[in-house]
Amino acid sequence: MDIKDIQNLIKFVSKAEVSEVKYKTKDFEITIKTPLGGNEMTYMQQPAVYHSAPQQQQQGFASPAQASAPVADTPAAADVSDDSKFVTIKSPMIGTFYRKPSPDKDVFVNVGDEVSMGKVVCVIEAMKLFNQIESEISGKIVKILVDDMTPVEYDQPLFLVDPS
Question: Which residues pair with 143 in a beta bridge?
Fold first, then answer.
């Protein structure tokens, strides 16, 4: 089964309004879980990072609940109590969030680091494929919203960036 077949299967499962499907052959097995059956999800071979300011979100769109505690490696220079001025970098896929390219390497970004467009901010592993997630905004990381090596959902907020 190639990546196109897997993507088509994922789209079919999300349109079928089911929460989980298992597919197994003699040398291949896949389990697809959707957060809410029936929601359309887009998966791309080269994942993009979706971000939006909270005041620009459409009405009727509920942000997914935050499942893990925030990571506080270094104290933030800015006051992060007013999140409305920050831009959110969100997960483009379901997978496992990693802050490092490998266990023996340094993290991609820390709180207070400057990021520019195209800079890798994390890696998300999905089905043994490690997808580098790049920033689509320039600014300073003010908050890391997910712990290292934890599962993330599609469209889950990962980082808060101060674009000023």
Answer: 160
